[in-house]
Each structure stands twice: as structure tokens, then as C-alpha cells.
Specification:
This protein has about 250 residues and is mainly alpha-helical. The chain is about 75% helix and about 0% strand.
């Protein structure tokens, strides 16, 4: 089931539940009921709770969006480090640089074709990635430079392998959901409270009031879906992509 279909169903369900409760509750109200009797303190409390919950939603959205941006940045750093390795081995002998570039290309192909889909499905790194990157590390570190010019490129290349490994580890830490369960409990409970409080204002069955109640509940459902969609940086629709690998290694990714 696609994420957009889930969003549509969630918003429709939220609207249907709220409007159904409004209609049923309105039938139970007597003709002598006066909606102007709603105490001012209830309106004030409803407004304040709505404001507090809006702030919480904003912070949650900002948090998951920042986590997604950080995950995408780790992908860029990893791809850039591997690209620099392929470029800087130009000063080494042909057979050495071709072997290193071949190892880098094999790792990139695995990340793009296999590891990213695996991360989306399982929320963790694949099994062969560390092995392929270790092969790149050995190909770089095992070579003994024959000249000073080759020696000047040795340490930077070793550092680049370490940077790629560090970025890969950071990508693995971001592979799963970033929002703790207790936060989700607070968000869902807050949504129920915020929507439930609108019934204290004695909503009538007029078109304007029903429209506003439906839009309010649909908006909260949309914001919760947005947080859920961003919560797994590599796992859902608006997720981090392997774009940096594809742009820097077009000969590998096609």
C-alpha cells in the first residue's frame, strides 16, 4: 500500500469519525440548549491546548526533517570520499589504481542496487557492505609507495577510506526509525485530546461548523502522517536517496 493512499485513508477516517460524533452528539442535544452557555474558561483551555500541541507537532516535524537531512548528508559524504579515492589513485601504478577503482565500483554498485533497498525494508545495513569496503581499505593500505610523489598520496587516501567507513556507520545508525515510542504515544494522545476538546464547544450541524471540524481533524492526521513518513530517513516515500552515488559514479549505476 502506497504512502499517499495511507495518507488519504487516514485523513478520510479522521474526518468521518469526527463528523459522525458531531452528528450523533447533536441529536442528543435538547431544543432548549443554548450554545452561548459554554464557559469562557473552556474556550481558553481549548485554545491553549491547541497552541501547545501545535508547538509539539512543529518540533517533531523539525526533528524528523533534520534527521532526514543528516542522513542524506552522510550519503553525500560517503559517495564523495569514494569518488576522491578513485580520483587520487591516479598517481599510483596502473595495476594498483585499476584494482582499487574496481573495488570502489563494486562497493558502489552493491550500495545502490542492493543495500539501499535492503535498508528500506529492514532498517539496517546489508551484510556484504562492510566486506566490500574492507576490500577497498586493504587495497589502499597494502600498497607500498615507490616514490615520494606516490607516498604523498598514501595518507590522504587512507584517511578517505576512514571517512567513507565513518559515513557508512552513520548511515547505518540512521537506517531505522528515529522517533522514540514514547514520543509517538504523546503525539497520538495529544491528537485525541486536541480533537476531543472541540466537542466541548457545542458544535452544531451547520455546514460551516462541520467543515471546520473535518478540516481540523484532517490537518492533524496529515501532520502525524508527515512525521511518520520522515521518521525513517531511508525507509519511506520522502526518504534519503542514493542520488550522490548515482551522480558521482554514473559508469557504475547507469
Amino acid at each position: 500500500m502506497s504512502e499517499w493512499l495511507v495518507l488519504t485513508l487516514a485523513m478520510a477516517a479522521a474526518c468521518a469519525v469526527v463528523l459522525t460524533i458531531v452528528v450523533i452528539n447533536n441529536r442528543r442535544i435538547g431544543e432548549d440548549d443554548d450554545p452561548n452557555e459554554t464557559p469562557d474558561v473552556i474556550e481558553y483551555m481549548t485554545m491553549m491546548i491547541g497552541v501547545v500541541y501545535a508547538i509539539v507537532l512543529g518540533l517533531a516535524i523539525a526533528g524528523v526533517w533534520e534527521a532526514r537531512g543528516a542522513a542524506q548528508e552522510t550519503v553525500r559524504q560517503e559517495a564523495q570520499a569514494l569518488h576522491e579515492i578513485s580520483a587520487r589513485v591516479e598517481v599510483w601504478p596502473v595495476e594498483v589504481r585499476e584494482r582499487i577503482r574496481s573495488d570502489v565500483d563494486a562497493y558502489v554498485a552493491y550500495v545502490v542496487d542492493e543495500e539501499f533497498p535492503y535498508m528500506k525494508e529492514h532498517g539496517e545495513l546489508g551484510e556484504r557492505g562492510a566486506e566490500l569496503l574492507g576490500k577497498v581499505r586493504r587495497s589502499v593500505s597494502d600498497y607500498q609507495p615507490a616514490t615520494d610523489h606516490e607516498g604523498q598520496a598514501y595518507q590522504p587516501l587512507v584517511d578517505l577510506v576512514g571517512a567513507a567507513d565513518d559515513a557508512r556507520n552513520a548511515r547505518g545508525e540512521s537506517a531505522g526509525a528515529t522517533m522514540p515510542g514514547v514520543v509517538w504515544f504523546g503525539l497520538i494522545t495529544g491528537a485525541l485530546v486536541a480533537v476531543g476538546l472541540i466537542f466541548t464547544l457545542q458544535i452544531r450541524r451547520t455546514g460551516r461548523e462541520l467543515l471546520l471540524a473535518g478540516l481540523y481533524s484532517a490537518l492533524i492526521a496529515f501532520l502525524l502522517f508527515l512525521i511518520w513518513d520522515f521518521d525513517a530517513p531511508f525507509g519511506r516515500g520522502l526518504s534519503a536517496t542514493a542520488g550522490p552515488f548515482s551522480s558521482l559514479f554514473p559508469q557504475v549505476t547507469g
